[in-house]
TrEMBL record:
Organism: Hymenobacter metallicola
EC number: 2.7.1.71
Keywords: Amino-acid biosynthesis, Aromatic amino acid biosynthesis, ATP-binding, Cytoplasm, Kinase, Magnesium, Metal-binding, Nucleotide-binding, Transferase
Residues annotated as transmembrane: none
Catalytic reaction(s) noted: shikimate + ATP = 3-phosphoshikimate + ADP + H(+)
Domain of life: Bacteria
Gene3D superfamilies: P-loop containing nucleotide triphosphate hydrolases (3.40.50.300)
Name used for this protein in its record: Shikimate kinase
Function according to Swiss-Prot or TrEMBL: Catalyzes the specific phosphorylation of the 3-hydroxyl group of shikimic acid using ATP as a cosubstrate.
InterPro entries: P-loop_NTPase (IPR027417), Shikimate/glucono_kinase (IPR031322), Shikimate_kinase/TSH1 (IPR000623)
UniProt-annotated binding residues for Mg(2+): 14
Cofactor note: Binds 1 Mg(2+) ion per subunit.
Binding of substrate, residues: 32, 56, 79, 141
Binding site for ATP: 10-15, 118
Amino acid sequence: MRLYLIGMPGAGKTTLGRALAAAYELPFRDLDEEIVAREQRSIADIFAAEGEAYFRQREAAVLREVVAELPGVVLATGGGTPCFHANMDLLLQTGYPLYLEVPIEELLQRVQRAAGSRPLLAQVDSPQALETRLRETLAAREQFYSRAPLRCSGSACTVAAVQQLLHQYRVSG
Ligand SMILES: Nc1ncnc2c1ncn2[C@@H]1O[C@H](COP(=O)(O)OP(=O)(O)OP(=O)(O)O)[C@@H](O)[C@H]1O
Ligand SMILES: O=C(O)C1=C[C@@H](O)[C@@H](O)[C@H](O)C1
Ligand SMILES: [Mg+2]
């Protein structure tokens, strides 16, 4: 089984992904970390040196490598992954995308602590501007995230809740 965690920066993809991988005894991968390992530089450095278009190409390519390599995996994707290069189609065709839906207010609190390490949020210099940026980003991305057959919201995104969702989905689908 391939389980793909998708959602906004700070939604909890890495945290929940690790816990789900342990519960299912599957390997865990984080797509951002896979890109960093191959490129031997940080995401911020890649954005700064090469720009977003290059990053999105690498992201799409590394996603396909990870999928081809691992028939069983819990994969935390990058926040923008489902929105570029038909990646959402690939996720739907090869596994179970799970959308972690977290209210903007909660996301704000979480990303404020580490906005500097996120290239797309780094230039945003006030809490107000950060909120606006997050709202705009979510509005643009919702159409992609919403294609996930599995979804959990905020504090309901526990390992047990996801296990139940997945079980129901696989039994009925
Ligand atoms: N269910 C939760 N409740 C409260 N805080 C959480 C929860 N899940 C994650 N967090 C916290 O929110 C922050 C972001 O979590 P995490 O790194 O897992 O998100 P992410 O979706 O992987 O983000 P990124 O976009 O950086 O990859 C972390 O500080 C984490 O401790
Ligand atoms: O939301 C985004 O577009 C991004 C999120 C991160 O996971 C990284 O993939 C990168 O910083 C871009
Ligand atoms: Mg993460």
